Amino acid sequence: MKPRQGQVVPRWRSPCSAHSGPAERQSLHPAIMGTLRWLFWAGLGYLSCCYPPGAQAQFPRACMTVDALRLKRCCPALGTEPGNVCGSLQGRGQCQGVQADTRPWSGPYTLRNVDDRERWPLKFFNQSCRCTGNFAGYNCGDCKFGWTGPDCNVRKPPVVRKDVHSLTAEEREQFFKALDRAKTTIHPDYVIATQHWISLLGPTGEEPQIANCSIYNYFVWLHYYSVRDTLLGPGRPFTGIDFSHQGPAFVTWHRYHLLLLERDLQRLIGNDSFALPYWNFATGRNECDICTDQLFGASQLDDPGLISRSSRFSQWQIVCNSLDDYNRLVTLCNGSDEGPLRRRPARGSSEQLPTAEDIRRCLSLQEFDSPPFFRNSNFSFRNALEGFDKPGRVLNSPMLSLHNLAHSFLNGTSALPHAAANDPIFVVLHSFTDAIFDKWMKRFSPPDDAWPEELAPIGHNRLYNMVPFFPPVTNHELFQTAEQLGYTYAIDLPDSLEETQAWAVMVGSTIGGALIALAVLVLLLVLFQRQRQRRGFEPLMNVSFSPKKYMEEA
Fold first, then answer.
1. How far apart are CA 24 and CA 32, in angstroms?
2. pLDDT at 400 (0 to 100)
3. Cα distance between residue 451 and residue 101, in whole Å
4. Cβ within 8 Å of residue 365, ≥6 positions away
């Protein structure tokens, strides 16, 4: 078995599977249950030690044991040596207390000690591996993005993210096959929690409520968990909370989210140079140019809301879509299949995708974000890119733009924040959004304090650990250029409005100067002509011509 490939799940089974419920367990003999429990945890231990450490997110399978959860300590050993906690024997890291942001937040969420995502991840773990140098991962067995080598001290050649339309036939097939495999391959390192922290050890306190999940459904679950409502009781959700949208963390959260998937796919297919493509949605058209069977699937003729049967994505089942049911039952998405992927682009309607001019205006905004660092921020690059604000419009008038408009245009699953990542178009849409962010970063080179240290919505302060990634990673750590994180874009984005205006001024000045010079020349010629007419004809030069031809002797 090749490392990092994981276990392939048959098509007819859900790629996420939670542990059996209490009623099912009671029907088994206690001795059999004991044997099964031992085999289960032994199997998880095997997966944990035999696969190299994966991308960083919630939660490492190696830490979802009763003892680790009770101690709130996630510091696994690297390799088979029990004493090599966090790779300490190789100097890779140590088990230390988790640092969580304590600065005040603002925004609609004013509750305290209610949501398990407050001061992430302290409700679950208050100790984790702190890696040294460029080491990374839940047991420090990995390298930070952009680094490679046994000691993680060699710069990895950046992978290049290309326009999905410019991929070769081979690259295109590799990308779509990787997505399809990720949809049906159990994540080798991580599991999802199916209950919040109070109920995580189950009714007996001995049964962690976790589920295995496929690599791609895990990607979906992470996005769902970041936007889900706060659960106050049966049918009593608090909806005014979002850790990955409507604030500064929008750009860094989705950047890290994509990096995790990109690394998982690289390992799944055994290709370190694999890169996620992007979709340039700034066409201004009223049709989806990637909604074809050669790419992400056309619409079915008999039901335009479904994906064409000729597309591999017509077989995809979505997860984490039933938000109202989770709220009513006071539970979390457990990764079960919940129906087919739906998409219905606004073909032929008056709604149009963003334009290149929208990007140009967005890139002209020099301020990264502005108070109150929320969806009503004005003159904010982040808010314009996210799509809550459109530069040049009347202030405080509702209008979708860029990222938000692209999601809305696709309709169906993509239009629901908690479920949007189910549609694989999510990947290329956010890759393009990240490319715009990277262009802005390179143009303005913002200082650290461009990001608010406090009083952003919960989860959006500069040093807040992004939810639900684990080990903890702050927004600040992703506030850098793409090259520093090991990737780049093959893209030619429109210049900002100021650059366009500066170019126009330069060209105008050049043309204006040439016209003035021409006018002066004409005036001189006119004056010379008048002077010559007064004095009679005089040749400019006295020249005598020889009758001999060229090359003849003089």
1. 13
2. 86
3. 14
4. 379, 380, 381, 384, 391
Say if strands 127-131 and 73-74 run parallel, antiparallel, or are unpaired.
parallel
Bridge partner residues of 190 (DSSP): 60
Whether residue 337 is predicted with pLDDT greater than 50 in this model: the reply is: yes
What's the whole-model pTM score?
0.82
Q: Residue 497: CB partners within 8 Å, gap ≥ 6?
A: 360, 361, 363, 364
CB-based contacts of 144, cutoff 8 Å, min separation 6: 134, 135, 136, 152
Work out the burial of residue 20: count CB atoms within 10 Å of its CB; fewer than 13 is exposed, 13-18 middle, 19 or more buried: middle
Q: How far separated are the first and last CA of the chain, in Å rounded?
A: 93
| Residue 451: Cβ within 10 Å count | 23
| DSSP H/E element including 10 | none
- Radius of gyration (C-alpha) of the chain in whole angstroms: 30
- Flag the least confident range among 298-302, 387-391, 404-408, 452-456: 387-391
Burial of 22 per CB tally in 10 Å (0-12, 13-18, 19+):
exposed
Sheet holding 93-97, edge to edge: 73-74, 127-131, 93-97
Distance CA 366, CA 447 (A): 12
| Residue among 407, 410, 387, 411 at smallest CA distance from 399 | 387
The token pair that represents 507 in the structure block: 């060209």
Please name the residue ranges forming H helices in 228-296: 249-269
Average pLDDT over residues 33-58: 43
